[in-house]
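job 3f2a | input accepted
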Amino acid sequence: MSKVIDSVDVICQHKSNGEIIPIRFRLMNEDGEYETYTIKGYRNITHPGPYTTPDGLYVSNNVYIYECLIIVLNYKRKVRLYFDTHNCKWRIAI
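job 3f2a | predicted structure (94 res):
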């Protein structure tokens, strides 16, 4: 199971058709400093209704899930961003 962080800052683009595109996010590390990551690619994961994700998060219809590709120390890595439209909160599974 992945580690889920409930506090993540995300920069995203809101298109005129309502689509949300994540562009960049930042996390606070153990030293209290921010680390910023640029999203190199993403995939919107659709789901039919409420269910529990492989990360152990229970999500409903109002949660958008994005599988994102980032580069960490010259290695490609996939993370999942969760955007809850009900309370405008982002979470990340790393």
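job 3f2a | The first strand starts at residue 4 and ends at 5.
job 3f2a | closed
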